[in-house]
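DM between two lab members

TW: hey, do you still have the Ribosomal silencing factor RsfS entry open?
JB: yeah, one sec
JB: this one, 113 aa:
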Amino acid sequence: MKKNDDLNLVEGLKNLLDEKEGEDIVVLNMENTSLMLDYFVIVTGNSDTHTAALRDYVVKYFKDNERKIKSFDRERGFDWLTVDEGGIIVHIFTKEGREFYNLETLWNECPRV
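TW: and the structure you got?
JB:
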């Protein structure tokens, strides 16, 4: 049941990020990797303020769905912020950070959801 719950949670998260004008949203299924998690959600914000707001929306979304957050970046002004729910990690990038770290290429064998 958890797998379906996580997929529904990820789909809702993707919709939320889209509503909040997150750019180029990608969800990678990470189940068949050596990492102990199910999904990466990758999104780009258009400014420092926007990336921080996206992070706050993601944190609230997990809390509203009664999911415990293991950790999240609380600061601002970085090219890469994460929110780690355990099975789902959300990566929020600036455009420059996303191009530099290029997670989609690093994990290109993982199917997109």
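TW: got it. The chain has a mean pLDDT of 94. Residues 2-106 form a domain with the Beta Polymerase; domain 2 fold (CATH 3.30.460.10).
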